[in-house]
Amino acid sequence: MSFRSLVQTVIHPAKVTKDLGDAPSLPQSPVNLHGSLQIRHVDAGSCNGCELEVTSAFAPVYDAERFGVRLVASPRHADALLVTGPVTKNMADPLRKTLDAMPEPRFVISLGDCAHDCGVFTGAYGVEGSVGDVVQVDVHIAGCPPRPEVIVEALRGLTGQ
Amino acid sequence: MNEVCVVTVGLAGVVAALLGGALPASSRVVAAVTFTWVSCAAALWAAVSVLSSDHVIALSSTAILPLTGVTVVLNPLGALFVVAIAVVAMASTLYWLGYASHGLATRSASSALPLFVTSMLLVPFAASVATFLVLWEMMALTSLVLVLTDQSRREAARSAAQWYAVMTHAGAAAILLALVLLSAHSGGQTFADIEAHARHLSGALRGTIFVIALLGFGSKAGAVPLHVWLPKAHAEAPGPASALMSGAMVNLGIYGILLVGNELLGGGPVWWWLLVSVLGVVSALYGALYAATSSDLKRLLAYSTADNMGLVMIAIGASGLFAASGHPMTAAVAMVAALLLMLNHSVFKGALFLAAGAVQVATGTRDLDRLGGLMRRMPVTGAVFLVGALSVAALPPFNGFVGEWLLFQGLLHGLPTSNTSVVISVSVAVAALALTGGLTVAAFVKATGIGFLGRPRSNEATDAHEVAITMRLGAGALAVLCLVLGLVPMLVLPAIERAAAGAGRINATSATRGWISLHLLGLRGVLAPSLLAGGMALAALAVIAVRRLAHHRRSWPAVNPVEPWGSGRKVQTARMQYTATSFAEPLQRVFDDVIRPSRDLDVSHLVESRYYIERIAYRTSNDDVIERQFYRPFIAGVRWWGQRARWFQNGSVHRYLAYGFVALVIVLVVVA
Fold first, then answer.
1. Bigger pLDDT: B551 vs B397
2. Do A75 and B565 touch (CB under 8 A)?
3. Residues on A contacting B at a C-beta cutoff of 8 Å
4. Which of B364, B370, B581 is nearest to B458 (CA)?
5. Which residues pair with residue B604 across a beta bridge?
6. Is B216 a domain residue?
7. Spatial separation of the C-alpha atoms in residues B96 and B119, rounded to whole Å
8. Least confident of A24-38, A66-80, B503-517
9. How far is the C-alpha of A34 from the C-alpha of A80, rounded, in Å?
10. Which residues pair with A81 in a beta bridge?
């Protein structure tokens, strides 16, 4: 951030939110969302790096909510399940239960490299496997951790906004 | 024939009480119930014959009560109350057969219960001050014995009985004062004498008598702020007794108000009825609010009784207001609504209290926070409670709906009257009714949902079994009656109209007409309860049929049963469910300023470190705010004076002799 933009941000705090340009066309949503996506997030055993970035993606600077994405408190209200981290043995069952508790149509987004292939946790004694080993994954957001821009871009692709 | 019936009511009741007190434990309850039924049947016969013809039963004898004699007259108004009491009494005594083994087969209970029923049945027959007061007092005393039944096991029963004894006798004293004032000023103690002379009394005296009688009878009907005994006594009385008290005895408070206000004094000015309406509105709101926040099943029902009696009083007050401002048609509708509400309340509250008694027998607790899952374990009791809850929530096709519909019709059609005070009070009453309705629904969703659905919250609830067949029959009969009265209220409406015409001093002989649909004469209002119920049934059938058809053609998504969401935990316990307290918490928070619940959070730390918590105790109680703010300080004041008085009476004989001496000296000085 240049000095000039920093001063502008101080003078006009409302402009803290970044202009992210037009909506990307990818990834395509597996279900028709009509521009609105409710997400239930499950941390299946992450190092919390991904959580920080997800938080950042929904914070004022990147503000994913303006693109129709919302984090909700109950799987009963969710369209998509957002899973971070490798799936630990203790979290495997709760993860399945959470997916079971979601109404159809639903889909699963895995976020971060660990969710894809367990990353540095591969073969650890408490790890059951990647998210794909436990539930069927429809969309993957890569990175260790993925930057907020990447997360928001992927979510915008899903909502088409 | 009818005169024979009246004698039979009394005789059978006395025989039942004697047998209940004398026979061995194995047969006393059966004998007492049999003769109580004879008594009820005779009373029903007499009441129905009065209600179906305009024949009035009259009887008098000087042999029973010395000096004053007994005068008995049954008019249509009294007959309607007799019917309500007899129906509840028959169901409750049948239920008693099964309940007796749970501590209600003692000699005292077996003779008090028949006497209680008989004295209630006979109160509406009474037609002289002495007869009325004797029967009234008998009713109070026998019910007091019944409240005390569980006193050896429950400390609360003793305190409840104390409250009840004081309140009921204060009420009886007020009634005595009012009736004695009346008879002193009219030169006779039979109601006929009083009726003939009362209209010539001065307005101030009539007003005073009415207010005193209203306070006395209002305390029996559970009118706020004289209701404090009701949630205690009704909750502590054993199952059949609480059903009788809530389903039958409170009605007699209403009867008393009608008796003194309309029959003896012959109606009165607008302010009397405004007073009745205000009492009704306050009772309805206060009762409904406490019912919604109580977590004790029977306490909840008792507060709901105060609420329902409030509705009846609103209707009576409205009827009086309309009659006094010259609108006989609306007055007739409001009075019919009052009596129908009273009758309905007897039936559904009887059913609810019997079901609650069954729950208490099966689980040993009334605390909703320890119940749950009873619908599957006690299907009949659960169904009875559900029917009762739907009735009290005034949902069609059950009986509560018809009564409240009539009440709303009467009130709304009464709005375009010219009298400003009537218009204002009626609008306030309509608003209060709406809020009351909502609170009542919340209370009974809680009672049914927490008590009977979900998973059991304690071992007692897990091990609950359905109760004895007679208990199910007694409670079930009242539940069936709820449905019958809801579908065809026309069965009882002609009788109620006859009673209302007498009660409200209304010339209109008929307020409603029709067999399938209910037309209000003179007003625009039509209700067809059976068609409504038929429509509801058809709609339900249609949904099921469409669902079946679609499922058959596979155009409906398959049902995928999943377990309740418990945050993904492996084990879900009953403690994760809503409780009655947590269900009522938001409501309680909204009305915090009114009910001022006391909350107490107690955190104790480990001795080693303040950063570690050893125990957290959270206590909350919503005891009656009127009791806490008004009665408790009053009792404390009386205690204080009592303590001061002990200085005078300390047991020293010398001091007493000195008192005698001083008194003698004073008398001598005064006389000299």
1. B397
2. yes
3. 42, 74-76, 93-95, 97-98, 100-101, 104
4. B370
5. B615
6. no
7. 18
8. B503-517
9. 14
10. A40, A108
* A9/chain B closest Cα distance in angstroms: 41
The H-or-E segment that residue B71 falls in is strand B70-74
Number of domains in chain A: 1
For residue A98, list chain B residues with Cβ-Cβ distance below 8 A: 568
Question: Would the CB atoms of A104 and B560 count as touching at under 8 Å?
Answer: yes
Average pLDDT in the B61-76 region?
Answer: 82
CATH number of the domain at A71, please: 3.40.50.12280
CA proximity to B381, closest of B333, B438, B451, B279: B451
Helix (H) or strand (E) holding B294: none
Lookup: tokens for B14: 């006395």
* Residue that terminates a domain, selected from B505, B526, B547: B526
In the structure encoding, which two tokens stand for residue B573, read together? 């316990």
Q: Burial letters for B435-472: b for 16+ Cβ neighbours within 10 Å, e otherwise?
A: ebbebbbbbbebbbbbbbbbbbbbeebeebebbbebbb
The three-point CA angle A86-A91-A92 to 5° equals 80
Residue B511: is its pLDDT beyond 70?
Answer: no
Last residue of a domain, one of B526, B544, B565: B526
Q: Count of A–B CB contacts within 8 Å?
A: 21
What is the pLDDT, as a whole number, of residue A121?
Answer: 93
Q: State how far Cα A156 lies from the chain centre.
A: 11
The angle formed by the CA atoms of residues B453, B458 and B459, to the nearest 5 degrees, is 115
Cα separation, B23 vs B32, whole angstroms: 9
Structure pTM?
A: 0.87
- Amino acid (1-letter code) at residue B7: V
- Which of B557, B563, B570 shows the shortest C-beta gap to A93? B570
Predicted complex ipTM: 0.76
A104 CB neighbours in chain B (<8 A) are 557, 560
Q: Using CB atoms, which residue from A76, A95, A104 is nearest to B565?
A: A76
At B608, is the pLDDT very low, low, confident or very high (cuts 50, 70, 90)?
Answer: confident
For residue B607, give its domain range: 590-672
The strand pair at B512-513 and B518-520 is best described as antiparallel
Count CB atoms within 10 A of the CB of residue B138.
Answer: 17
